[in-house]
Amino acid sequence: MPEMDYSKLLGRIREKGHTQKSVAKEIGISESQLCMKLGNIYPFKQSDIQKICDCLDIESQEIGDYFFTPILEKTQVS
To answer: For residue 1, is it within any domain?
Structure first.
């Protein structure tokens, strides 16, 4: 499974005045669990995604942009 790019989600966390710690607390997981999910070590559960969307006012049609955008591999051009 490709790694996901969570940069837009991280930007939304800051935009809404939250920290990773405050979001983790609000959705009921530890800060370290959230960091591991954002670092592509563990996947987000559907329930985590829903809680984060509620916390950060992310609309259902935007979920793909925040949670399912793969990191594009950088290719070298010769």
So the answer is: no
Using CA atoms, how far apart are residues 12 and 27, in angstroms rounded to an integer?
Answer: 15
Please write the tens of the pLDDT for every residue from 9-53.
999 999 999 999 999 999 999 999 999 999 999 999 999 999 999
The structural domain count of the chain equals 1
DSSP state string for 1-70: -PPB--HHHHHHHHHTT--HHHHHHHHTS-HHHHHHHHTTSSPPPHHHHHHHHHHHT--GGGHHHHH--B
Rounded CA separation 76/52 (Å): 36
- Would the pTM count as exceeding 0.85? yes
The length of the chain in residues reads: 78
Residue 52 domain-assigned (yes or no): yes
Distance of CA 21 to the CA centre of its chain: 13
Q: Is residue 37 part of a domain?
A: yes
